[in-house]
């Protein structure tokens, strides 16, 4: 009974994001290592003392989200079934490669810090992401073309994330409202991820990835590629896609479909937040899905895994 692990993207960093893992001995080394990437401050302290804006700055946000996924995996990996599927949403895809064993946890954190720095170097203040639900793909494409933005992520159920500069996103939000979109929300992400504004960043990140130390994939793990929802079978081709996702649309609805077609009998989101597990609940109501963020104890997660993903 494979469990599909979903690694969250940026947008829901918060002061309590490490409340389950902060005392887990399995994750302690990772927190200590991460402090080196965060100006010497332990991330468990940092999330409590820094402003919400700082937690959502691009580099800090990418590192915190990746740490959350890796720390959660270290804490719960001995309870997971022998077969898992792993998919990452946006920056979560880098963490997914770490969970699949292709990068060590420390290498994964170093890579995500470089990814963020490279993206920041190609970004303009005001760049960001806008969520729109309730318009067709065609209607969103027309708005993007008209105002100079692009679809960053395709979620299930006529839900899209659009990326671009702030003036373009403001104009699209207004036009989407006029077109009676059901939900329009700015996401707390400071880069126009997965759009052609980051073409150069994708090229630069490819060079970083190809120079990284990559190990064979862990047995029993199926890793899903974000830009097309296919299973990674060839590491070099997969790395090229991991780089391209920086400037290319993420087909998240395809990723979820692939997980289900590969036999996922439950989904566990590693957080922060529960947006991905809620998307699963809407699209695949018969498949149990939860986020680790919804549990108040390690034992609660272990019990859930035990009843939804036996070996
Ligand atoms: C943007 C969001 C906050 C929007 O979520 P919301 O819940 O507010 O909005 P929603 O439209 O999904 O849901 C609103 C209500 O509508 C319901 N609802 C959802 N889909 C529906 C459908 N198809 N039909 C009818 N109702 C529906 C929901 O259950 C919910 O009900 P009810 O109100 O009853 O609950 C969320 O999608 C989110 O957190 N996404 C993750 C953040 C993200 O996209 N990050 C980008 C990462 S980029 C990144 O990481 C950059 C990088 O580094 O590369």
Automatic annotation (TrEMBL):
<dbReference type="InterPro" id="IPR001227">
    <property type="entry name" value="Ac_transferase_dom_sf"/>
</dbReference>
<dbReference type="InterPro" id="IPR050858">
    <property type="entry name" value="Mal-CoA-ACP_Trans/PKS_FabD"/>
</dbReference>
<keyword id="KW-0012">Acyltransferase</keyword>
<dbReference type="InterPro" id="IPR014043">
    <property type="entry name" value="Acyl_transferase_dom"/>
</dbReference>
<dbReference type="Pfam" id="PF00698">
    <property type="entry name" value="Acyl_transf_1"/>
</dbReference>
<feature type="domain" description="Malonyl-CoA:ACP transacylase (MAT)">
    <location>
        <begin position="6"/>
        <end position="304"/>
    </location>
</feature>
<dbReference type="InterPro" id="IPR016035">
    <property type="entry name" value="Acyl_Trfase/lysoPLipase"/>
</dbReference>
<protein>
    <submittedName>
        <fullName>[acyl-carrier-protein] S-malonyltransferase</fullName>
        <ecNumber>2.3.1.39</ecNumber>
    </submittedName>
</protein>
<dbReference type="InterPro" id="IPR016036">
    <property type="entry name" value="Malonyl_transacylase_ACP-bd"/>
</dbReference>
<dbReference type="GO" id="GO:0004314">
    <property type="term" value="F:[acyl-carrier-protein] S-malonyltransferase activity"/>
</dbReference>
<keyword id="KW-0808">Transferase</keyword>
């Amino acid at each position: 009974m494979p469990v599909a692990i979903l690694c969250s993207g940026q947008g829901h960093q918060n002061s309590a994001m490490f409340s389950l893992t902060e005392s887990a001995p399995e994750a302690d080394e990772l927190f200590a290592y991460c402090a080196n990437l965060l100006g010497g401050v332990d991330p468990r302290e940092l999330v409590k003392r820094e402003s919400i804006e700082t937690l959502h700055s691009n580099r800090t946000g990418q590192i915190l989200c990746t740490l959350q996924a890796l720390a959660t995996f270290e804490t719960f990996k001995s309870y997971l079934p022998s077969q898992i599927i792993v998919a990452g949403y946006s920056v979560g895809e880098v963490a997914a490669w770490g969970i699949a064993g292709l990068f060590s946890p420390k290498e994964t954190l170093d890579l995500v810090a470089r990814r963020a720095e490279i993206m920041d170097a190609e970004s303009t203040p005001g760049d960001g992401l806008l969520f729109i639900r309730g318009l067709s793909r065609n209607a969103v494409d027309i708005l993007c073309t008209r105002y100079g933005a692009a679809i960053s992520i395709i979620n299930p159920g006529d839900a899209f994330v659009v990326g671009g500069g702030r003036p373009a996103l403001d104009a699209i939000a207004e036009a989407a409202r006029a077109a009676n979109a059901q939900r329009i929300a700015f996401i707390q992400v400071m880069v126009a991820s997965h759009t052609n504004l980051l073409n150069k960043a994708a090229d630069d990140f490819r060079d970083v990835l190809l120079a990284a130390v990559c190990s064979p994939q862990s047995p029993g793990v199926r890793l899903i590629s974000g830009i097309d929802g296919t299973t990674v079978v060839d590491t070099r081709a997969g790395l090229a896609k991991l780089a391209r996702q920086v400037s290319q649309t993420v087909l998240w609805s395809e990723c979820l479909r692939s997980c289900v077609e590969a036999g996922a009998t439950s989904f566990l989101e590693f957080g922060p937040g529960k947006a991905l597990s809620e998307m699963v609940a809407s699209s695949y109501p018969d498949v149990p899905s939860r986020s680790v963020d919804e549990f108040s104890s390690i034992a609660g997660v272990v019990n859930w895994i035990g009843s939804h993903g036996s070996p």
